[in-house]
Amino acid sequence: MSQTEYNFSDIAPYDDSEFHSKMEQLVKEPGFLHAVNYTMPPSDVPALIEDLLKINTKDDFQKQVMFPFLEMLAKTTTSGITLGGVKYLNPSISYTYITNHRDIVLDASFLNLAFLRKGFPTSEVAIGNNLLIFDWINDLVRLNKSFIVKRNTGLREGLEAAKKLSAYIHYCILEKNESVWIAQREGRAKDSSDHTQEALIKMLGIAGQGQFMDRLKEINLMPVSISYEFDPNDYLKVREFLMKRRDPDFKKSQRDDLFSMETGLLQFKGKVHFQLTPRINAKIEQIGDFKDNNQAAKHIGCLIDQAIHRSYEIFEINYIAYDLLHSTNRFSRKYTEEKKEEITGYFNRQLDKVDLPDITPEEREFMWTMILTMYANPLRNKLRALLGGIE
């Protein structure tokens, strides 16, 4: 089945022709109004609603509402957002931006903010339906150029959903001339060691023309490396590691997911850097075809990982975490003793936030190791990528 034979209405962003009616419904939703009142003075809300009801397209919504909102968020929760590798962008080409995954909400949002600042078109954004806890969130993200990735389906439904998702991404790139953003894996890497899921690459290669590698080439995969100086969710991830250590069957609740989204959104992240890298088409051409698509997907995943790992922005906190984790002074020239003391204090304060009963000294040591690992891994992976597998 070609991509144009699918009906994408259940997963695609809302069409501009239905934008106004969907927005009219959204601004009456109690959940949406509660969220808006949480992020801005209640006295400003009526004016915002009035402005929202004057907007008729997704692009205008992004430029008139999301752009200033994200600028405010960047100003209050970061030390600045930077974008490198702009020379690799060709305005006449639509890309599949494939990135490591650090923040549930902001990875794609801040990348689109960086594009808006430079006058580049924003991308459509893949978002898992597990995050669409309320109907109004589903409406909001689809008004904001997001498309839905259906997860937690049965095997048969999962295969159909993967075929449809792949067809939609190819349709975006080749027919709508819209770029798309997708994370390299489902869910964030809790230990910040980022690796592309083979299943994702196989999904991307289901639709399209020609052999598996040709199908991947036609969607212009561009790896993008994301680096956050501080991860506001670091202590929540450590808490989850400890919960799983205590109970291997532990599963996060929807409430946990909501709190992680809120923490990542509103708490301090320090410096944030996005590094664009060349699309991998030329490298795909060099390696030719694999007889086995599993091997091909694994190889493509390695190419993406290497591009992302090589392009991390490494901050003082990463060097300090590495040296503390390995009891070494290997990178001591990269920071001062005062900075090391300051960052050590930060780690301890974050661990103090873990609200579990009866944490033993051994468990505290485990949490200490995990938070150091989380901040050391980007540096470890960068060293391996640059030094050919040697750390």
Helix content range: 40-55%
Q: What value does the Rg take, in angstroms?
A: 21 Å
Question: H/E order of the elements?
Answer: HHHHEEHEHEHEHHEHHEHHHHH
CATH level-two architecture of the largest domain: 3-Layer(aba) Sandwich
| Biggest sheet strand line-up | 1-7-6-2-5-3-4
Q: What percent of residues are in strands?
A: 5-15%
Tertiary shape: globular
pLDDT averaged residue by residue: 94
Q: How far apart, in Å, are the first and last alpha carbons? A: 46 Å
Spans where pLDDT lies below 50 across 5 or more residues: none
What does the main sheet amount to?
7 strands, mixed
Q: Within the CATH hierarchy, at the fold level, what is the topology of the largest domain?
A: Glycerol-3-phosphate (1)-acyltransferase
Would you state the CATH class of the largest domain?
Alpha Beta
Counted by DSSP, the helix tally is 16
Query: What is the tally of beta strands?
Result: 7
The SS-based structural class is: alpha/beta
Provide the domain count. Answer: 2
Summarize this, please?
The protein is an alpha/beta fold and 391 residues long. It contains 16 helices and seven strands.
What features would you describe in this structure?
This protein has about 400 residues and is an alpha/beta fold. Helix content is about 55%, strand content about 10%. It has 16 helices and 7 strands. Helix 1 (about 20-25) packs antiparallel against helix 6 (about 135-145) and helix 10 (about 235-245) packs across helix 16 (about 360-385).
